[in-house]
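Hi D.,

Good news: the full-assembly prediction came through. Inputs first.
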Amino acid sequence: MAVGSGELPPMFPVKGFRLATGCAGIKVAGRKDLVIMALAEGSEIAAVFTRNAFCAAPVQVAKAHLGNTSIADRPSRYLLTNTGNANAGTGEQGLRDAQHSCASLAAIAGVETSQILPFSTGVIGEPLPMEALLGALPATFDTLNEDGWADAAEGILTTDTRPKGASRQIDIQGEVVTITGITKGAGMIRPDMATMLAYVATDAQCSSEYLQQALNNAVNKSFNRITIDGDTSTNDSLVLVATGQSGPALSDECDLAVLNDAIEQVCIELAQAIVRDGEGATKFVTVELIGGASVEECLKVAYTVADSPLVKTALFASDPNWGRILMAIGRAGVADLDVEKIKVWLDDVLIAEHGGRAATYTEQAGQQVMDKEELTIRIDLARGSVSETVWTTDLSYDYIRINAEYRT
Amino acid sequence: MAVGSGELPPMFPVKGFRLATGCAGIKVAGRKDLVIMALAEGSEIAAVFTRNAFCAAPVQVAKAHLGNTSIADRPSRYLLTNTGNANAGTGEQGLRDAQHSCASLAAIAGVETSQILPFSTGVIGEPLPMEALLGALPATFDTLNEDGWADAAEGILTTDTRPKGASRQIDIQGEVVTITGITKGAGMIRPDMATMLAYVATDAQCSSEYLQQALNNAVNKSFNRITIDGDTSTNDSLVLVATGQSGPALSDECDLAVLNDAIEQVCIELAQAIVRDGEGATKFVTVELIGGASVEECLKVAYTVADSPLVKTALFASDPNWGRILMAIGRAGVADLDVEKIKVWLDDVLIAEHGGRAATYTEQAGQQVMDKEELTIRIDLARGSVSETVWTTDLSYDYIRINAEYRT
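Then the structure:
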């Protein structure tokens, strides 16, 4: 199940960024499970990773390679992704396997091992099937091309039901600049990243400082504002690459703002695509907090509502059981909440005020909103002027099925 | 579904504590949904309530009545409980309804309104059906008797599949003192209480100061150490009564410690009964944290593991997917966690150490533990000497069914 049509939009190639997708046999034989991405010489790269204390071997290796002291001389040139196995909870062996994978691709590509960044997603705690992975590298490497986005979008999936991509072309000083990205979900999704991988590339010319700043901004409006089940993974990684092969060298504030905005839009579209394809999702729900005194309290309430199993099962049942929303707001742990002042809407229907059901509310009006596949829960805390938005799904039988049968 | 046989144990009457159960028609016609409890004159009472900011009308009224300035002269004499409707999210009308219920029972019993404490559990946000409730009061009142525990245990249920009770008799200075209690769950269960009501009574003679202290101690070892779905409710209430009609007047430290321990044991048995009958539960899982540096971090990790949907679905599937346990530990937000030192066991089977699968671990050994209906996840953080235990269940199809169809 998934919400909306989910068709991959047109994926504009990014000059200087090539992709190749192969079948290594790590997942089911014949299924795409290996993706190589090649960054043209001179590319800049920025990345954010999971904050889970048990971060996977590839995350540790990728961080080390990015932080390599010789990075100025030997910047990252290849991204190596496998699915079907997360290489997490694999101890020392896992680290050796991740490094060995990088070394093997480096030998084929003729670069240093530290110029390869590894990424893995899939089952935790099983050793990485090295023979299968390494065996598929040469043939896959040979197919690198700038039109490989759609295949790669399939190659990085695990329990996702469909590929996820977003692409924009913008005009900067009369020249076309492209931003294209792909991502995968679909459970273990929560702030501070999730079981997700995302790769966004642009051919814009910009500094690495700008790029990391643009990535941080975009993440806090997109990937760090979604939740499926409140769990966060050991492997989350988001990479933003700028190849610098199109458009002018960017330094003008206005131009950078335009690029910033386009990167943010691509990231929001990708993050929302993860939620729409959340495990067992039948609803796409926007939780909008307004009137908060701080970002922190807005997010506390928004996530408590978005992650509440009782709210999520009511959403699955299309049941306007707004009492559960009040319950979740009330347990979010915001001090001195004045429940008399709080208002709650389903889309434009005011459902609760003065600590109870709104006088104007009718079950029919609430039901009409709840019957929709996409809806907004809007909550006014009436304590200030800060607002925040997060996106989530319902909790369905299929979520249980997918996660109970994951390894069977 | 529920774990274990769940038969109600022998429920010893408590001298001076009478119970009556009726059918008011608030739930399905003919189902017990009204319980009155009567405290003999001179009884002491202690209570704890939900910390949800949206606390229900009966909770507000009960707190007000307990805090009444005339309480020394006119202490609580009756507890009035209805199920089928939580009288929560009902605003001003809800408060008036709760007060009106108390006034009606007070008139029948010949006491002051402030001597009645009201309790409600059931659906949130619907007005309390006053006519049905008030109509059933007189006939129910007439049946008050000291042997009413088993009926009352049924009368307070909502989505619970079975009544829950615990009873102990202890010897104090050669005299028998009884402690008996009942409780109801079954979802919205988490620390700081939950959608739960619990009533424990003893005929011991003790001061009200001692009683509140004994209750606070017991709660932190029982009701505040369980979780079903991480949600907490608007109505949780736990009451401890001492009628003072058996045994000597207690002041000896040893005697008080014996009583303390018995109260704690009754509360633990009741709290565990809630978990065993958790919504959709097929497993009873003990999460035991050892080697923590503080209570706070032990509970943080224990609850993150216990509430993780991915851990819970693996438990439902009897899948020893220990990677998900590591993931949950890692995202619990404990600073400077040294994952190298952490060890995890399923019962006595060491499953993870040094950041990965234990060398001695076999899938077969893990599977044998996972196949059990009751099991322990033991986690050693290797940071200190604090330990804490919480109890939880798995996450099953039935949890979704129960909560998606709750109002249909």
